Amino acid sequence: MSTLEIKDLHVSIETEQGRKPILKGVSLTINTGETHAIMGPNGSGKSTLASTIAGHPRYSVDSGSITLDGEDVLAMSVDERARAGLFLAMQYPVEVPGVTMTNFLRTAKTALDGEAPSLRHWTKDVKAAMADLRIDADFAQRNVNEGFSGGEKKRVEILQLELFHPKFAILDETDSGLDVDALKIVSEGVNREHSKGGMGTLLITHYTRILRYIKPDYVHVFVDGHIAEQGGPELADRLEEEGYDRFTGANAAAGA
Amino acid sequence: MSKLNDVVETVTEKVSNVVEEVKAKVGSPTETSRVRIDGFTEEGENLSPLNEDSSPLGGDSSKSHSHGGGEGIPDSSRAGRTTSFHRADFGKLTGREEDWRFTPLKRLRGLHTADLDGTAPELAVVAPDGVRVESIARTDARIGSAGIPEDRVAAAAWEDFREATSVTIPADTVIEGSVTLTINGVSKDPAAQHIVITAEKFSKGVVVLDHKGSAVLSQNVEIVVGDGAELTVVSVQDWDDDAVHASAQYAKIGRDAKFKHVVVSLGGDLVRVTPSSKFTATGGDVEMFGLYYADAGQHLEQRLFVDHAEANCKSRVMYKGALQGRDAHTVWVGDVLIRKEAEGTDTYEVNRNLLLTEGGRADSVPNLEIETGLIEGAGHASATGRFDDEHLFYLMARGIPEDAARRLVVRGFLTEIIQQIKVPALEERLTDAVERELEASGAY
Prior knowledge:
Structural class of chain A: alpha/beta
Radius of gyration of chain B: 21 Å
Order of helices and strands of chain B: EEEEHEEHEEEEEEEEEEEEEEHHH
Strand content of chain A: 25-35%
Largest sheet of chain A: 6 strands, mixed
Oligomer: heterodimer
Structural class of chain B: mainly beta
Order of helices and strands of chain A: EEEHEEHEHHHEHEEEHH
CATH topology of chain A: Rossmann fold
CATH architecture of chain A: 3-Layer(aba) Sandwich
Largest sheet of chain B: 18 strands, mixed
Number of helices of chain A: 8
Shape of chain B: globular
CATH superfamily of chain A: P-loop containing nucleotide triphosphate hydrolases
Number of helices of chain B: 5
Number of strands of chain B: 20
Distance between the termini of chain B: 52 Å
Number of domains of chain B: 2
Shape of chain A: globular
Largest interface: A-B, 30 and 29 residues
Distance between the termini of chain A: 46 Å
């Protein structure tokens, strides 16, 4: 069993107006087999948390720690984090010119495993995983994400999740921009991988909709760069009814 | 059926991309910011930072923003360009000329001013049986069979070369394997060279010009593709770092002939290849491919001309370039002229550039002149993209180390051209050469 532990994390970004703090002391522990949902209004820092875990250079960690089974994640480069077992399904996957999906998937798999996958099994695995996610076979020959629709890009993120078998998957608003059918397909993919028992999931979302398909064990409400409330799945139901109003300053004042 | 039957005009597009942005780089220390963009002034874009304000579209005219709306109007038609076997007819180069405005004349090392009487590169030919290889005199009838110089440097070489090398694939002969002309530069004095490649009617073959070593060379390559012949010419510029090379390559395409031309420019300080294909009868089919990879400080220029002078011919052009390092500069100009008599023409040209680091400049200028509306199709495209930190982040976030991520992108981008060569040993060598280019820049 693995543990991803985030302790008192403070993160800021450089803006034209100077340094701006985004995360203001986030602590969170995820174990293998658990699904944690992070919910919160726009601008609360949810995606910053995801990008920081993956090591995006835009975000600087001012204090706090992230460890994976005791190893210092913050000391690792982006590719080392991935090889250590962290996977970020991105909110806006970029198009990579000149690189076919086939080539990309094989290269990544080789890098992650430290050896090239057996060609015969790999081709079969990729085909099967693509079929499960209703991704057209001809996508394999297209350049990574090039000309893919928003929904197709998200499905391709989950395709990678299923092929790479990470220890921890961070899904950054994977549900946004998906219609109900696509949402179901993507959720099934996450559940398939999760059910194998080797993965912990951090599900970042603005809406409760995806939680109908992916059942969280824990729900954390993110407001202004920190966790304002935590609970079980019932907290999501409450948010569904009440929205984020009671957590935001304006409404708190209005209610007073 | 014409897709463009209302369009009888000259289209000139210009895409200049300068990348000087400095962002946080994944996996490497952040560089200090530089604010300097070649070719851009406070007033706007200056098309030729190389030759100062002197370019026809530079200086005041650049402020008017529109193409040709300034004081200096570029030569209105490719058809009207001066052609001559004598350098004097072109006058002294200033860098203002439309076809020299991107070239740093100072780095030509005298090719445009000196007598080209230095020792020409050694030329060794390896040819399969059946191919005729000859040294021919200036007076030989084959000299001038395919081309007339279109610029001063080419004309200078035409005036100054002593004897030429002729390679002939005889009529009805299909050559197995390829003919390779290894051109090995041994002198840094300005020199001239002349090569004539003839594929007689209904012959088929592949000819490779493989340039190595160091030279200051102006070269004319005449290519005659006979009726019904099928010829591939590959010109590889794999020079040492200090070489200067201007190569005018003229192809004359016969009836129902097929011609494939591939330019690969990797090494040299300044390499300027000007390939042209002229249809002289109907039914011709031309494919022109190019790959260039410029490192810091290198100037790699390619100026193409496809002359649709006859009806029912087809042309496809695809050039791809990669740039890395400070002051890497590439130029691609693709002129396509569809003359009035060239009804039924089908043409498309595309240029793609990939900027791998900050500090490079890719100029891309597709020009399409259409003098008849009765054509099958005519189009062009140009795109210059940047391999940026977000691409790098995406690939690295999937476990791929930084150097491998760059290799993946560049290899994918350029392989498409290398695959066109169809000479396995050469394809392999060039793939390796591209890999070396990437590794050489180990500064990442």
